[in-house]
Amino acid sequence: MAHPLIVEAAETLFVPLAIKNNTEGDADARVREHFDEAAWNNPVGRVLNPASEKDLLPKLHQREDWSRAAMLELMARALGETAPPWLTLAAQEERALARGVETAIFGML
Fold first, then answer.
1. CB 32, CB 21: distance < 8 Å
2. Is 23 left (phi over 0), alpha (psi -120 to 50) or beta?
């Protein structure tokens, strides 16, 4: 998820957090257990309400669609009407690229 717009959105619109999934007996393991995530699991993306610690949307995990488009769409959906236009456009562009949209250039006479 090193796409520059995903990084920009995560750093400016959310509170990003990464939890290691391969540790035992430490703070990361306790957070994993709190959210009922298995150790050595595939990565997941979650958008939580910080007050209730409940998911605002279903989590994104690799068995579904762990693409850049899916992460951008998750972020845009989480923000709803307050999502900046660039985030929504980035999600649409990534989804179009994933479907194999082609580019054509036409000359003008």
1. yes
2. beta
| Residue 106, both tokens | 């036409």
47 neighbors 78 (Cβ within 8 angstroms): yes
Q: What is the DSSP string of 13-45?
A: HS------SS-SSSHHHHHHHHTT--TTPPPEE
The pLDDT tens digits of the residues spanning 40-96 come to: 887 888 888 888 988 889 888 766 777 889 999 999 999 999 999 999 999 999 999
- Kindly report the backbone phi and psi dihedral angles of residue 41, in degrees, each rounded to the nearest multiple of 5, phi listed first: -80, 165
pTM given for the model: 0.76
43-48: long-range pairs with CB below 8 Å, 24+: 45/71, 45/74, 47/14, 47/74, 47/75, 47/78
